Amino acid sequence: MRLHIREFKMMNTWPRRFVQKHLEWRTFQRFGLNPWQKEVLEIGCGSGYGACLLLNSSPKDYVGIDLMPEQIALARQRGLKNASFLKMDAADLNHFADESKDLIVIFGILHHVPEWKKVIKECYRVLRRDGDFYVQEPCKRFLQIWDFFLRWHHPLDSCFSLKEFENQLVAEKFTILHRRNFAGMGLYRAHKKCK
């Protein structure tokens, strides 16, 4: 689903980048995030700021996907080396083979995807054994409060509680290695076990 114009503008400002770098990114690093020499997929890459953070750690390969062509255009304008950006629906990752990525990262976009459970299932399929899935997501109640004040018009019928999200990770056979709930946001490291 496309972002409302107000949210689109806010997601491309310095306050959003500050939170992404100093809260989300640093928490993921404390959880063990290390993209070095890994094949990385970022779902909901937006304007490419997450790509900048990930590429600073020298991954083997980076692919960022987003549904909005405007975001893909902004990401490509960054001219990042060893990065490709594709317009793609997060619920349909058929472009990627089974077990083709070492690391998948999401910086808060699942609540925009009506088929968010399918996204988690697809992430499990695409992730290699012993791979990691890092996710930041706001809970439904947090989004309701933000929508009341900011009028971002989130699709609240596709939003979920953090408990529902955690249950879905476990249902798809992920092991939750780390979690942190902060002011209505959940940050997670989920792991795909070796079989």
Automatic annotation (TrEMBL):
Residues annotated as domain Methyltransferase type: 41-134
MF GO annotations: S-adenosylmethionine-dependent methyltransferase activity
Keywords: Methyltransferase, Transferase
Keyword Transmembrane: no
GO biological process entries: methylation
PANTHER family documented for this protein: METHYLTRANSFERASE (PTHR43591)
Protein name: Methyltransferase type 11
Native source species: Desulforamulus ruminis (strain ATCC 23193 / DSM 2154 / NCIMB 8452 / DL) (Desulfotomaculum ruminis)
Upper taxonomic lineage: Bacteria, Bacillati, Bacillota, Clostridia, Eubacteriales
